[in-house]
Amino acid sequence: MALMKFICDTERCIACHGCVVACKEGNHVPVGINRRRVITINEGQPGERSISISCMHCSDPPCMAVCPAQAIYKRDDGIVLVNKDLCIGCGYCLLACPFGAPQFPKPGPFGARGVMDKCTFCAGGPAPTFSEKERRLYGQNRIAEGKVPLCAGMCATKALLAGDAEVISKIYAERVARRGSGLSPKIY
After folding, report:
1. What distance, in Å, lies between the first and last C-alpha atoms of the chain?
2. 55: which of 35, 104, 118, 177 is 20 to 30 A away, CA to CA?
3. How far apart, in whole angstroms, are the C-alpha atoms of residue 161 and residue 123?
4. Burial of 45 (0-12, 13-18, 19+ CB in 10 A)
């Protein structure tokens, strides 16, 4: 089975934040939660680059290793998800994640944590596929529909690639090789 991954081509990312908006709007992500964000390095300086990041759906997810409620699990296709019915909001996953992917709503004036939210790779969650509960808790299940995640699908410059790790790594390697050879880049 294919392992699903993201790759962001920093030569193409223009920090338009279209990926962020597509995710928030398409999945009805609550205010204060950002499943995806764009970071700019060396802003305004020579060599400035932007990168779109979210949960990287790690091969050996540290968030899953530290979850005392065993709410975080990994599917056969490599997508790492959280079961919101099991999450206790302890925050260990946030401390373990090198990408800052786990997000916690802070509904009260004292910042009490709620249930963790993160990128689902638009693969829904443990609730029945296409059910109202799945849509409400986890967002769209585009993977079950045979579609790429919203963020990658809406990327105007095709900087954000999502899908089978072997396929997208070949696309990225071809782009890099074309840039190195001076050939004009293919758009796909």
Report:
1. 23
2. 177
3. 16
4. exposed
Give yes or no for residue 147 having a pLDDT over 70: yes
Alpha-carbon torsion angle 7, 118, 145, 25, nearest 10: -100
Length of the chain: 188
Write down the residue that tokens 């800052």 correspond to: 100
CA separation for the pair 136, 125 (Å, rounded): 10
- Residue that has been written with the tokens 């060599």 in this structure: 47
CATH top-level class of 4-181: alpha beta
Whether 186 shows a pLDDT value over 90: the answer reads: no
The answer, yes or no, to whether residue 36 has pLDDT greater than 70, is yes
**Closest-CA residue to 61 (of 93, 33, 92):** 93
pLDDT of 162-178, one tens digit each?
999 999 999 999 999 99
CB 151 within 8 A of CB 54: yes
Task: List, as one string, the DSSP characters of the chain.
Answer: -PPEEEEE-TTT-----HHHHHHHHHTTPPTT--SEEEEEESTTSTT-EEEEEE----SS-HHHHH-TT--EEE-TTS-EEE-TTT-----HHHHH-TT---B----STT------B---TTB--SSPTT-HHHHHHH--BTTTTT---HHHHT-TTS-EEEEEHHHHHHHHHHHHHHHHHTPPPP--
Residue type, 72: I
The pTM of this model reads 0.90
